Model the fold of this input.
Amino acid sequence: MFSLPPTPEDPVFALNRLFNADPSPTKISCGIGAYRDNSGNPTVLSCVKKAKDLIGSSTQNEYLPISGDAEFLSLSRELCFGSDPSSNVSSIQSLSGTGGLYLSLKLLSQIGCKKVYASNPTWGNHKSLSLNAGLEYSTYTYLDLTNLSSPSIDITNFLSDLSSMPINSAVILQACGHNPTGVDPTSEQWDMIVEKCRERKLYVIMDNAYQGFASGSPESDSLSIRKFLSSGLDFLVCCSYAKNFGLYGQRVGAVHVVSADSKNVVDAMKQIARATYSNPPKHGSDIVKTVLGSEELKKDWVREVGEMSERIREMRSKIREKLEETTGGSWKHVTDQIGMFSYTGLSKEQVMKCREESVYMLESGRVSVAGVNEGNLERICDVIGRAVG
Ligand code: PMP
Done:
């Protein structure tokens, strides 16, 4: 017979459950990181609709190879690196970003890496994935929290934490649109980070879950990855097409391995994939491949991801304006931050006060700005205003 203690729920999904159970007609969820349009509805990008029409309903449903769709992987490399640098880069399709991180961390644990570090704070699943892969988990300093109205990277402590990591440790770096803080390193800071990773011989995993969402330009958002590429270091990139293509449930992603030994690394990852889920799903990669492989649809996509990112920026400005009006304080950090998320600076107690009024955000005070719209902005700001007032 089974005899198990209860398993703690993932905080993001637990929040969603609380939200769903709330009978209030005016409840608002600022929890889950999924894009909503200005009426609060999920969107299907028009380039995705067109791609689905082109794919049609009679496409074969055969297995993909364990490594996935080669054409999709080549287009994914091109998006990530600017061109397909095929000679020392090999790739494997993954179950979105999470699945790519799993393959990467499991591989590192198999080759003798003992410990992995992610930023403090970071996306909650980094820790669970690392422990699940059999690695020890710890964090490095990321944000200077002394002045929340002007958030910045605490680069001194960030670099000194990288310096004190044992050689052969792994470090997870978010390529852009940092979740949950919305604060990314500057170009100069990335140069210093790359140098430290080289010095400490760290295994680098670039978590690329928001390409296009941070600045509105997929190309600008790959700056950090291209810096690692031109440094000549070995590294891994885990790409997700959940957010930037709105393909959350399709589980489409890729891991790119940059190394002279990349083919052997991918072969080892294929073994892990084979013993875990055998081969990746096909429909999502068919969609991304159709969009990125067509000049016209790719243009549509670049425009649409830019529009989603721009709508979020507009919401940031309006939130700031409204909160400054109601609280009299500075909310500059809301417009300084980029990407889907804002680290509001609300305490846990203030977050709970918001929940009493049916406005839901994570205990850390993280708000998914992607869920804010003209219709709910006023109430969100009123409730936050009362909570901090
Ligand atoms: N990395 C980060 C930083 C994320 O925020 C997310 C999604 N919330 C992911 C990876 C993975 O998402 P998915 O598995 O849906 O691609």
In short: The first helix runs from residue 11 to 21. The chain has a mean pLDDT of 95.
